[in-house]
Amino acid sequence: MELYELKPYIIESCDYLGIDIKEISSDILLIQIPDNLKDELNGINNTKVSFVKTSDPNITYLTFESFFTQKIAQLVADRNTGIGTGTKLLKLDAPTNYIKAQLPSCNIQLLDISQENTDYLFIWFKTTVRGNLVEEYLKGFKYNLKEDKVETYNEDINFLLEDIKDELLLDVNEAHLDTVLREMLSLAKEDAEIFIEKKKIENKEILDKEIKRINDYYDMLYYENQLAESSKGVTPKEELELLQREREGLISQQIHKYEYKSHDTTIEPIAILMLRQTVETATVHAVNNYGQISLHINAENTISLECALTNDTNGPFTITSDDMIVQVDNAFNCSECNRLLDKSKESSCKVCDQKICNDCEEISSLSRASLCHDHTQRCQSCIEVVASDEFHLCVNCNQFYCLKCNESSLCSLCKSLQPIQGVTPQVNQIINLLPNDFSAKKYESSEKGNRVNLLGKGTLFKSFLIVFDKNTNTIIEKQKYGLFNKKK
Ligand SMILES: [Zn+2]
Ligand SMILES: [Zn+2]
Ligand SMILES: [Zn+2]
Ligand SMILES: [Zn+2]
């Protein structure tokens, strides 16, 4: 029997048949037989096989004569029904279901569904190369007849053969097919050359070791013979020549053993599939209460959504008000404008901690903190935006001003009262608004932002203090003084 390398043969054949293999160790494989092949293999589902003898009763020792090997070979042969032609429709169900699952809060619609046909030629070659061992492998090649180019064959055979409808394709150009087949064969030849080159490198190491072993052995004999008396009736010189010839003979045997003879390589097509593949394409329109997106999908390509913020592909996702796909966990609702936005646009109010977007937030001129609408106030003295908790009461005029305008308990208006030189129209307006019992001999005033403070004085003591608001044109604070400036 020829010495085949059994392990690669089993691995490639199982791959061709769609049988899953897990390598447990370099000699032991776990073979997982799909249900459709179970009956063919005596009802086995999972089985461990080994290429060396083991004492484990659960592991089948595999040789070329084993039932399993023979059956696999037969199944491969059965699959090779020669030339097959058929059509296959790749539908949009998988990508559509994926999008629906990944965008659970969205309404998904498929628009502009269309179909595109491409003819492919698949061909599987069995390549046999002969060196010290005879090695076989199966390899598939794929040709796109529409674009006239070789494509990488990386199909899952079960998936490829699934749902093919046998159909004769009569409109195929035979001469063209012939050229393509020849091109594929030359590709398979190139591939075999690469395989042989790889094997040669592997073998070179083994061969070098063998030669070294032979040389070491004969070097030792040579040395011993130089010392010893001849005992076989040949002269020492003749004996050394004999050893040298033996050595050369053994080395050339080894070289011959590890040699690959390219003319011994055979490449046979074992299966050809001419496939007209129809691929559905469409535009997916996904919409929720906030935004919408459109995506082009193609039944042949797997689609994967990705978070616009993190590029993470783990869903679920949602669509933001600015029409971006983000992970649900990376989206927030602005409590002001109610838009759904990604977290890079999120702030929270310093006072109430509500989530607000960058467009809605106000920034305190004092602390630079983010503020929601409810907790934003304008200081009527400096007219700046500050947080509602950044105000301080002036004990004199009883008004709240920001911490900049009222650092201590006396506001900057109260601190800067100055005697008035003449009665301006504004002072006149304020005086006209005074109640009848508010009178004074002289006045002091200060003005900042929207506020005017007016202090009325008698001969000796203060008479009254009022705060006038320019926005509303009203007096918002009235205080009367008694003797010795005592507030009434
Ligand atoms: Zn907002
Ligand atoms: Zn707030
Ligand atoms: Zn202020
Ligand atoms: Zn004040």
What does this protein structure show overall?
This protein has helices spanning 6-17, 35-38, 67-79, 93-102, 157-161, 174-227, 236-257, 412-415, 425-433, and strands spanning 20-23, 28-32, 46-50, 59-61, 82-90, 107-130, 134-144, 149-151, 165-166, 266-287, 292-298, 317-319, 325-327, 331-333, 340-342, 346-348, 355-357, 362-363, 370-371, 376-378, 385-387, 391-393, 400-402, 418-419, 442-448, 451-457, 462-469, 474-480. Helix 1 (6-17) packs across helix 3 (67-79) and helix 6 (174-227) runs antiparallel to helix 7 (236-257). It folds into three domains: 1-79, Dihydrodipicolinate Reductase, domain 2; 82-130 and 139-302, no CATH class; 416-485. The protein is α+β, with helices and mostly antiparallel strands and 488 residues long. It is elongated. A hairpin with a 6-residue loop joins strand 22 (391-393) and strand 23 (400-402). The mean pLDDT is 88. The N and C termini lie far apart (124 Å). The strands form nine sheets. Strands 5, 6, 7, 8, 9, 10 and 11 form a seven-stranded mixed β-sheet that branches. Strands 24-25-26-27-28 form a five-stranded antiparallel β-sheet. Strands 1-2-3-4 form a four-stranded mixed β-sheet, with helices on one face. The protein contains nine helices and 28 strands. Residues 394, 396-397, 399, 411, 413-414 line the site of one zinc ion. One zinc ion binds at residues 379, 381-382, 384, 401-402, 404-405.
